[in-house]
Each structure stands twice: as structure tokens, then as C-alpha cells.
Amino acid sequence: MNNSGVTQSTATSWDVVVLSFKILYQRLLLWIRLNFQYLLFSIPLVTAPGATAALYFAVVRGLRDPAGNRIIGSEEMKEGFSRFKFRALGLFMIKWIIFFVIVFSIFFWIRQDSWWLRSFSVIGFYTLLLWMLSEIYLYPVMVDNPELSIFQVLRNAVDLAFIKPFETLLLMVVSNLLLFFGLILLGPVMLVIPALQAILRIQIYWFITGKVIPGFMDLVQYTNEYG
Q1: How confident is the model at residue 186, as a pLDDT?
Q2: Which of 12, 58, 61 lies closest to 216 in space, CA to CA?
Q3: What is the extent of the structural domain holding 126?
Q4: Torsions phi, psi of 224, nearest 5?
Q5: Does 7 map to a domain?
Q6: How many domains does the chain contain in total?
């Protein structure tokens, strides 16, 4: 699968972004199918977090089957939804609670009369940025480490964003640009945007944690070593 000459040991975060677009193009029908099923699972809004977790679960299965030997589809989506629906909902609720607490604290300090008290809002803005960056890793961490509790997932995601800020910032910019253009163009583009975001986030997560990214390996080598 990898004919670019780039290996995981020599790759940069930008190489991971390029690889993600390449994988999207090579297996476009798979990602469109998963994305369509994700949209169906998300029709009741309360199930949207579980549907997102199911999409990431299925994308992980797809990425770890670069040869396309297995049919990745509704069974993986159902399995992922069943395994992660409650944790995903809990993660979603806690994520937004933390977000609003941070925003409230920023407004609290900004409204103080003393300038040195207002200066505490800088910490709030930094915390908000760190939290927004860490949000990118929540689903990859949860799906790839099913043994972790919700709070362990949150802690690991924050640690990754703090340790690797530049890689995370690149991922956030690319991910948000995809969403922006997807919303502007609508139509067929939205059939691949959520799946592409999942591919990007999962592979960047693997990259910064040192986990094997199948796309950087020769197909025969990967099959022999990892099946």
C-alpha cells in the first residue's frame, strides 16, 4: 500500500495527513458506506455520540485491514455502537460540562475590576485552547483503548494535546477546514467528511503514540506481521 517511500520512522505529521487523504481516495466506497451508516445511527440526536464512537470503531477496523480482506460495514457499526454507546454519551456530557465551566471562569475573571484579577483570564483562555485541542483525541483514545474509563480517556486526551501541541494544532486546523468546506459545499462532500475526520484523528493519534500505522508499511509485510 505504501509506495511513497515514506516510513513511519521518517514520517512527519504532515505525511500522516497526506496518507489519510490517500487512503480516503483508495477505499472511497468503504468510507462513504460507513459515513452513510453513521448518519443513520445519528438520526435520534441522543444516539449521535454512540454513532460517532461506532464510526471510529469501524474506521479503526478498516485501517487495520489495508488489504480489504474483510467486509467492514454494518456489523462493525453495530458492534461499536453496542460497546461504546453509554461511555460515548457520558463522554459527550462531561466534555460539554467542562467546556461551559471553563467559559464561565473566563467571563468571571474578565469582569473583575482589578487588572491583576483580570489577568487570571489568560489561564482560562489557555485552558480553553488546550481543551479544544484535546477534544480531537477523545474518540480515538476511547475506541483504541476500550479498557479505559471515561476519566482516563479525558486525562489521556489532555496529556496528548499538552505534549504534542503542534501536531494537534495541525490536525485541528485540517479537521476544521474539512468541516467548513463540507458545510459550504454540502451535497456529496458531506458523504465523506466525518469518515475522513475519523481517519485523520485516528492516524495522528497512532503517530504521536508510536502505534503502527498500516498505511506506512508494505502490504505484504503488514499482513505477515499483523495478519
Answers
A1: 61
A2: 12
A3: 13-226
A4: -70, -35
A5: no
A6: 1
